[in-house]
User: Fold Cell division protein FtsX from Novilysobacter erysipheiresistens.
Amino acid sequence: MSATNSPAAKSQSRFGSWFDHHIYSLVASAGRMLKKPWSTALTIGVMAVALALPLGLWVALANVERFAGDVQDARQISLFLKPEISLERAAALTDALRARADVAAVEHHTPEQGLAELRSTSGLGETISSLDGNPLPSLLVVSPSGDEALLAASLQQLPEADIVQHDAAWRERLDGWLRFGGRLAWVLAAMLGFGALLVVGNTVRLDIQQRTEEIGVLQLLGATDGFIRRPFLYLGLSYGVVAGALALALLTVADLSLRAPLAELARSYGSDFALQGFGPVAAIAIVIGAGVLGWIGAGLVTGHYLRQTRPTDT
Assistant:
């Protein structure tokens, strides 16, 4: 038996032919896209917008959640003591609260510290300097280790307590809106993703109609469905990958246009908040996901066509 007729050589030859056809299908799909620039641009543009809308909503929600601050900070309770409470008594109360099981940490802000912070951040330095004495009370910032609502109610009962600020209501409303926004993003992603799949499927269907005779000849010659389907799958994959990259480019342009005014607005509130987009890993995952979406759309349409036109034995 010659080396060229050995099972290993035949297997290697089949694999080489299979690999060559994959490369040819990929290159041919790119060539067909370039032959129809306007149709290609329209398909990719529609897909990119359909992908960019839910992705942009996800980015916006992530930034809003980050802007809302750390969850532990949002749970902090501000306990303003009565003005007549001395620093010694405030320090003793701080130590007593730190020993409680339902308290994670306590920060004691003296009236002098509060006045200095107010003078530096409010722009009322001259007015504050003209005051006789310090009207600010001691402030204890309490971080709960359990249910903050129960802790806030307990702190309100202390004889030294004057005002207890507990911002649970706004945080619960914000969490509710974020949950609603997340669900809305998933609904939009499903609807627009299905729309993008239909766009790819329709484009591939038109391409199939233009190659009906070629496909018929291949079927008569005994070509498998996988062999016939392969170029169209790579066509859908190419549409999806380019559309995913364009969607990321659109989101990057939107990010750059909004970053400067948002940073200026954040600085007016004393924050260094800045927009954050998708990282490299997320960006690659988006492009791959868009490519898979195009692949699936092309596969569904091509499979349906081949089932309708498969020759039958008579």
Residues 83-159 form a domain with the Alpha-Beta Plaits fold (CATH 3.30.70.3040). The mean pLDDT is 77.
